[in-house]
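Sat 14:20. Reprocessing the chain from the morning session after the first attempt stalled halfway. Input below, unchanged.
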Amino acid sequence: MEAKIIQFRRGRHKIHERHYIIDVDAKNKEEAEKFKGKEVVWSSSAGKKIKGKISAAHGNKGLVRAIFEKGLPGQAIASNVEVLK
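Finished this time. Tokens:
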């Protein structure tokens, strides 16, 4: 399943470098909770793959938070990731 990276997880003074907000085409928070625990994989154009895991729902509009094993480059924002299992 394809999903889209929306933005870093941010606070007022801090950007969490490994935490991202992802749109998985869920309509509400309850549908987004079903994705909790699933793995996501981001692939670069050079073939490099970085894995992550969906940790929780984010807000009430069907977005989720994902934590990656290491930070993604800035070009990853607005790109697609693959949601596994």
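The radius of gyration is 12 Å.
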